[in-house]
Amino acid sequence: MEKMKPLTIGELVIEKPVIQGGMGVGISLSSLAGAVAKAGGVGIISTAQIGFREPDFKENPLKANLRAIGSELKKAREIAPKGVIGFNIMVATRNYEEYVKTAVKAGADIIISGAGLPVSLPEYVREAEGKAGDPAVRLNTKLAPIVSSLKSVSVICKLWERKYQTTPDLVVIEGPLAGGHLGFSREQLAELEADTTDTAHTFHKEAYEAEIRSIIDFVKKLGEKYGKIIPVVVAGGIYTHEDVLHQLELGADGVQVATRFVTTEECDAPEAYKQAYIQAKQEDIVITKSPVGMPGRAIRNAFLKQVEAERKPPKHCYQCLERCDRAKIPYCITDALVQAAEGHLDQALLFCGSNAYRAERIETVQEVMDDLVFGV
């Protein structure tokens, strides 16, 4: 049993090179993130409508969400006082800047940000830490953009270099087998998919692994330029110890895993949500068009069948996304994801990764971590 190297992000040393992916709404909150951090990985809380259980959420979603950022991090810290815990914050979030600054002030160790290019992330973090205009000062909160291509990481890094004289502390590569919103167009997914009818789960593996290697090489050279090590982790379709080893062999420093953690005792999702994964068959996992305008991977259930047949006009606006045309969207994504988080599955969008159908039972976070890292 070969011991994996710790994941080092600046001065943060993570015993096991596993980051738990952010899952919203309400799937990765304090319970899951705290348990993963306690088990030696990085626990990530999703800020996507994080305050949906707050009594004033419907009337004041922004205030409820910002308040919940602090309370969820506090609860996660109680579970793992010495663990590494951070937030996943989508760039597409309305009032993105306020979410970032609130997370920093709450004491986040790291912010992982995708669903758009986080071009202003360093600026917001510096302002929140009171270090605006001083690129020489090291930030306490580590910055990690999510990328899916060499082009996207190149754009982000060049912008950060030019505007802020800085680099990411970590880069997350999210591939086409990930769950939820995907950083690919339908056309790109079609190019990656193999010649098979099973297009929800298969793709030209070698082609994308070449992309992964090119991103790792780019980030390594950027780190050398600045005299620092910038670790790279790979996400999407990682479910087993063998999957982890394969990514490390490609040159990654670690992995980000989300779907595997859903069917754990500590996951914040309701029991019905977890059972939906366990009961899902491979053919139930599909690519669907999200109201956000991006492809997303989910379990095909009664809700998806319904919205494929007819539009469900939103009854209320939760101010969740920067670009949302209420008059045109097929359904309200906040409402659909809150329904999932509350266990009303027939009215819910059930996001998942490509391997969700492989879940057979409820495990503990410690069991999952042991399997991913040690294969036991």
How would you characterize this protein structure?
With 376 residues, the chain is of the alpha/beta class. The protein is 38% helix and 14% strand. It contains 13 helices and 13 strands. Strands 3-11-10-8-7-6-5-4 form an 8-stranded parallel beta sheet. Strands 9-13-12 form a 3-stranded antiparallel beta sheet, with no helix packed on it. β1 (7-9) and β2 (12-14) form a beta hairpin. Residues 194-202 have low confidence and may be disordered.
Please identify the structural class as seen in this structure.
alpha/beta
Estimated share of beta-strand residues: 5-15%
Distance between the termini: 9 Å
Low-confidence stretches: 194-202
Write down the overall mean pLDDT.
91
Give the biggest sheet: 8 strands, parallel
- Taken from the alpha-carbon principal axes, the silhouette is globular
Number of helices in the DSSP assignment: 13
SSE pattern, N- to C-terminal: EEEHEHEHEHEHEEHHEHEHHEEHHH
Q: Mind telling me the C-alpha Rg? A: 19 Å
Per DSSP E runs of 2 or more residues, the count of β-strands stands at: 13
Q: Bin the helical content.
A: 25-40%
For this structure, the quaternary state is: single chain
With strands numbered from the N-terminus, the spatial order across the biggest sheet is: 3-11-10-8-7-6-5-4
